[in-house]
């Protein structure tokens, strides 16, 4: 069964203003994908993160795309899961991943990032995470296991992924492109030279991953990693 929450939809065609609030879809038992949206030019982009429910509380992977959708996500969790959010892990410093930092910190939820992400966030005025880790890290909450892994630079120099070994779900974030995408997207802060190696590192480290979730399009399986690598190889030609 898919649980979905569409908290609001506003379309003002006369002014070209578009805003769609969060959606939450069930991905696996106790694992959900949260999606928020932003209009860039004439295109509305989705941005995904995860909600993982454990007996020890809720862990978010990435905030919503800004404070307002993050507040709505937290309201959804409170209403539907009825457990406290105990942490939010942001996978890199961009607005679509930690733009809701004020919303989570206002509810005393620690924002967790790598030290590299924290430094870049500070450099760009994106806020200060509460907890940082220097290296790849693994932890458990309520018997749910998490792995946070830095495969190398790609979409940004700091992008990490989150793996749920029990469910074999890999959240690739912006490092991974969906099958409908035919380009690398925003590469303003990218490390394109290191990106292919980062994808190969994911393939080698997580060959058992059954579900791969990108940031900005439909999720799927290992074919998303192969597709992303193909896009990068085309870029090199």
From TrEMBL:
<dbReference type="InterPro" id="IPR058199">
    <property type="entry name" value="BlaB//VIM/IMP-1"/>
</dbReference>
<keyword id="KW-0732">Signal</keyword>
<feature type="domain" description="Metallo-beta-lactamase">
    <location>
        <begin position="46"/>
        <end position="216"/>
    </location>
</feature>
<keyword id="KW-0046">Antibiotic resistance</keyword>
<keyword id="KW-0479">Metal-binding</keyword>
<keyword id="KW-0862">Zinc</keyword>
<keyword id="KW-0378">Hydrolase</keyword>
<dbReference type="Pfam" id="PF00753">
    <property type="entry name" value="Lactamase_B"/>
</dbReference>
<protein>
    <recommendedName>
        <fullName>beta-lactamase</fullName>
        <ecNumber>3.5.2.6</ecNumber>
    </recommendedName>
</protein>
<dbReference type="InterPro" id="IPR050855">
    <property type="entry name" value="NDM-1-like"/>
</dbReference>
<dbReference type="InterPro" id="IPR001018">
    <property type="entry name" value="Beta-lactamase_class-B_CS"/>
</dbReference>
<dbReference type="InterPro" id="IPR001279">
    <property type="entry name" value="Metallo-B-lactamas"/>
</dbReference>
<comment type="subunit">
    <text>Monomer.</text>
</comment>
<comment type="similarity">
    <text>Belongs to the metallo-beta-lactamase superfamily. Class-B beta-lactamase family.</text>
</comment>
<keyword id="KW-0574">Periplasm</keyword>
<dbReference type="InterPro" id="IPR036866">
    <property type="entry name" value="RibonucZ/Hydroxyglut_hydro"/>
</dbReference>
<feature type="signal peptide">
    <location>
        <begin position="1"/>
        <end position="19"/>
    </location>
</feature>
